# Entry
Amino acid sequence: MALRAWEPVHQSMAEVLGAGINALVYPDWRVSQERDVRAACMDPEQLVTVATDAEGIVSGFVTVLIGGETGEIYMIAVDPSAHRRGIARALTGHALEQMRGAGCRLALVSTGGDAGHAPARQLYESAGFTGLPLVNYYREL
# Structure
């Protein structure tokens, strides 16, 4: 048996999963994403930080969960019109400081292995996170 190093996928989720499974896993990602963002921001267990521009327009946010000695960046997002301005880096740094302040010894963040999440993976790796080659398997029945 040959083993090879894990590498992130350089395709979209739909290309990786195929149309049928993608439709089952992500039937309407905009609706589920909106629901998930609202739930995270309304969850009293999560610390929520919002980034705004000089005019007070929201450009991004991060939510953090603290659980004992582990802190998790549960959700982080930046408006596409504000990408490549250091907002995600600033929000990540702020989240890590929140975790340190809460006494956490370990920080966790998860993201996709598809091409669309490549910038997130680059950010987390540059912030000192180590990626775990975790694989989820799907099968249409």
